[in-house]
């Protein structure tokens, strides 16, 4: 009789009404023909949208749905069925066979899942079976009755569960476990039945898992819930995280003894429950936690984690009366690479820099990406500043070699500020801020170096903020003044050039010299606007004097490292000079050796472009940096400026003057002009003249002067200077 019923279209007098939804017309027609051949009343829907329209106007007993339909997918149709025709069963017929998709479909209410391509007889059998189950549901109405009469459906539900379903006896041995354990952990159910559940517990969780079932208060209303790690088959290291919920078995509702299906234990079931795989959730939580405290690009601790560790290190250092050091690192020329090669290459450079820096660290040190191209480094235990000095030198040295980014070879340096606890601050914020201040002093002196913070570097924070505000206003209120220091021919005593030097006429503090505000301008990124303002004024002033009868007068201007390293440095400089109709051949730019050596290839190209246009190139503070004959030979250098520290050494006799001798001799050999800075005495002037030094400047001829004084000086005949004493 059961066989005859399965051949009927539906349990009842009318054929079953079936909706078929698929976006493949041929498959749709074939499936409809197959079902109509068995006597079913079939409605075809070409896609999910048509299926939803059919559901709105007609009742169905069963829907066969494809999942991947372009307009409205199968899951959306299932939601429509659940809301409009809850008595309509659903069978998924799809080529998608991933576990996640199958599990999702079953959880959404699908009664079965048939993979494409399907066997026609198997499909018909499945459809008739599902319709049979639907008939039972309608006939008995209660799911409990259905479960009691259909062991096959019971096992289907249990084994199709996305969770592991288990039963344990009172000693913790497994009485029953569903097939899900195989896909999640690799065990066959038969392997585990009869074994103690501790067999699959991670060793770290055995004691906690065993104790959990021994509590006297476990009940239906108070189940035992815990998270544990379960071992996968054949490996004690590969574990997954599970959330286990266990209930006690009520003997009145589960009267079986040891005859639990699938088990080999002779004891009756005492507990039942589920184990839900929460590995993805735990990994997501770990990732979110990592993301909250780490920089995802470099995988380094971020600012928040660095501050936490620094705060702890300060507490420990204060208790042990030890020192610690905080370093603030800023990459030199990173912005140039980022602007020139793009952000992707910039990210690769940051990762490569991080890899090198990490090799310099000691165990316990914390390197952090503070933001952009800024890093901070915590040295939690230093015996003296020399320890920090050694680390700083290693960090600088490790970045000397070029980085290969695709087809590009790039150079970056690093400027490092160091603050030592407790000398440079007693709090986290003080140490970070003072290390930052020290770093900007390195930037102001040519980059690629390190400095320890000292009180002389900065006024207090309140005054510093006030000075920064005033400096921004100074640009708006035109408070910057350009003074000029003459460069004088050592033989004729006549002015041959003027070096433009900036001064700040502060409305309350009076005249402020560059050393007191240029580092702040570098730090606040105002140096570009400030230098542009100085060059504009100098071009106007010196251009006027050139047109007034001094055609050979040279204008010398200092350029900040950030200006020279900018990708549009050459174009910007030439546009600015030409806008004032200043003769390019009368302009001499002064840059330091460190700026050149930060990226010899790029700087060489820029300087050659300027030299080809007629701009003269001078090396400022020569002798205090690399002093490399290699770059002097390769670059279009016109002038060397001897640093004033060497000129002052002339007073100590022949031994102190040997460096000046060497520099002058080298300049003559390379056919370069030479300017000696800081000349203050007759002895120095005479010594330099005897060496053949072409030009000098310094207090011997007076301090830098405003334009009005220079105007009067140039209007005199002979342009000769009197000794100022």
Automatic annotation (TrEMBL):
Residues 150-202 form the PAS domain. The modification 4-aspartylphosphate is found at residue 66. InterPro entries: Biofilm_reg_signaling, CheY-like_superfamily, EAL_dom, EAL_sf, GGDEF_dom, Nucleotide_cyclase, PAS, PAS-like_dom_sf. The keyword Phosphoprotein applies. It holds the Pfam family GGDEF. Its EC number is 3.1.4.52. Residues 322-455 form the GGDEF domain. One of its GO terms (biological process) is regulation of DNA-templated transcription. One of its GO terms (molecular function) is cyclic-guanylate-specific phosphodiesterase activity. Residues 17-131 form the Response regulatory domain. Residues 464-718 form the EAL domain. Its cofactor is Mg(2+). It is an enzyme of class 3 (hydrolase). Gene3D superfamilies: 3.30.70.270, 3.40.50.2300, EAL domain, PAS domain. Keywords: c-di-GMP, Phosphoprotein. It catalyses: 3',3'-c-di-GMP + H2O = 5'-phosphoguanylyl(3'->5')guanosine + H(+). SUPFAM superfamilies: CheY-like, EAL domain-like, Nucleotide cyclase, PYP-like sensor domain (PAS domain). This is cyclic-guanylate-specific phosphodiesterase. It comes from Marinobacter excellens LAMA 842. The lineage of its organism: Bacteria, Pseudomonadati, Pseudomonadota, Gammaproteobacteria, Pseudomonadales.
